[in-house]
Amino acid sequence: MKSIASLGDLRGKRVLVRSDLNVPLDGTRITDDGRVRASVPTLRTLLDAGARVVVVAHLGRPKGTPEEKYSLRPVAERLSELLEQPVAFATDTVGDSARETAAGLQDGQIAVLENLRFNAGETSKDQAERHAFAEQLAALADAYVSDGFGVVHRKQASVYDVATLLPSAAGQLVLGEVEALRRVTDDPARPFVVILGGAKVSDKLGVIESLLHKADRILIGGGMAFTFLKAQGHEIGTSLLDADQLDTVRGYLETARERGVDLVLPVDAVVAPEFAADATPTVVDADKIPADQLGLDIGPRSSELFAGKIADAATVFWNGPMGVFEFEAFSGGTRAVAEAVAACPGYTVVGGGDSAAAVRTLGLDESRYSHISTGGGASLELIEGKELPGITILEEDRA
């Protein structure tokens, strides 16, 4: 992929930057600004080069029309603090405000346009509608930089179509993400240990299938572990279950045995009678969960087992929490795994999404990991070996 340097002298040029600013909000308060902070290096590079930077992004899932609760205004304000300079804000995506704001920028100045998904063209399945919106975005700039890794697996106007209309390059974030994740998948140093968590097996079918042919050890935690335990014939009480994936999971267990992959499941679990922060936790053997209880975390013996499997890894990829880490009583497993990955001397990648959120929520030092991805779904699809539209369009030679 081409880097920003390939775009030549950018002084005085308007550069459209697709960033990933999709952060969690409590009203207008950002509760995790990790993605905003991750966008800063590329933006600073462009501003220092004298570019006139027009940032586009989405937040939440509005249905193609404006919704105040999804406004990017709080994000623009936080970006201004991080960049230590004013950030202009346009109140629409490609309308009068966007055009006037972009046109009014001077060298080294920056603006954020309102939420792209306030316009139905951004995510439209109709190619003509999507492309028409992309043309309006492209008209605001002289060049395009793709730096929103969290959306590169989507064929959307600001991710894919705009790159066909303007001189284009990958930003530092996207280049770094692709390099880090391909280091994990292409020729990982061994032992290669994968830790997968999260709620459902069905969310990670492709990545499990792929990693069974690449990893030396796969550790399964989170809600998805209970489908594996059920597939082995164990009682899981009222825990999460992907009942329609039981046969698939049995196939994974058999494939792991055939290939000599150490597929590790929890040996104990922290259970409770209900899904609630103040529910009473109890530790039980993973194969003896009471019928009226549901598993909300891996237990202390499982945490110790997993940490031991991680300790000597040369490469680690972790995606998905081990339990409901947002609830203090059920955060122990995720914390133990996060600490074990941080302590591992090998190359360690946290695969975005809830895993990255857990690192920050639990107050852990992000610098202890080799790489923390900003894209959950994009990370998984790249690990799985899928082609990502926002990456492939940047790799095409359209000169």
Strand % is 15-25%
Instruction: Count every beta strand, where a strand is a DSSP E run of 2 or more residues.
Output: 17
SSE class? alpha/beta
Q: What is the helical fraction, as a range of percent? A: 25-40%
Main sheet strand line-up: 5-6-4-1-7-8
**N- to C-terminal separation?**
13 Å
Question: Helix segment count?
Answer: 14
Rg computed from alpha carbons, rounded to a whole number of angstroms: 22 Å
Give the overall pLDDT as a whole number.
Answer: 95
Principal-axes shape call: elongated
The biggest beta sheet reads:
6 strands, parallel
- Low-confidence spans: pLDDT under 50, at least 5 residues? none
What does this structure look like?
The protein contains 14 helices and 17 strands. The strands form 4 sheets. Strands 5-6-4-1-7-8 form a 6-stranded parallel β-sheet, sandwiched between helices. A 6-stranded parallel β-sheet has the order 11-10-9-15-16-17, with helices on both faces. A 3-stranded antiparallel β-sheet has the order 13-12-14. Strand 5, helix 3 and strand 6 form a beta-alpha-beta unit. Helix 6 packs across helix 13 and helix 7 crosses helix 13.
Keywords summarizing the entry:
alpha/beta; 6-stranded parallel beta sheet; 399 residues
How do the helices and strands line up, and which of them pair or pack?
Blueprint: E1 14-18, E2 25-26, E3 29-30, H1 34-48, E4 52-56, H2 73-83, E5 87-89, H3 96-103, E6 110-112, H4 127-138, E7 143-146, H5 157-161, E8 168-170, H6 172-186, E9 192-196, H7 205-211, E10 217-220, H8 225-231, H9 246-259, E11 262-264, E12 268-272, E13 282-285, E14 294-298, H10 300-311, E15 315-319, H11 332-343, E16 347-350, H12 353-361, E17 371-372, H13 376-384, H14 389-395
Parallel strand pairs: 1-4, 1-7, 4-6, 5-6, 7-8, 9-10, 9-15, 10-11, 15-16, 16-17
Antiparallel strand pairs: 2-3, 12-13, 12-14
Helix pairs in contact: 1-2, 6-13, 7-13, 8-9, 10-11
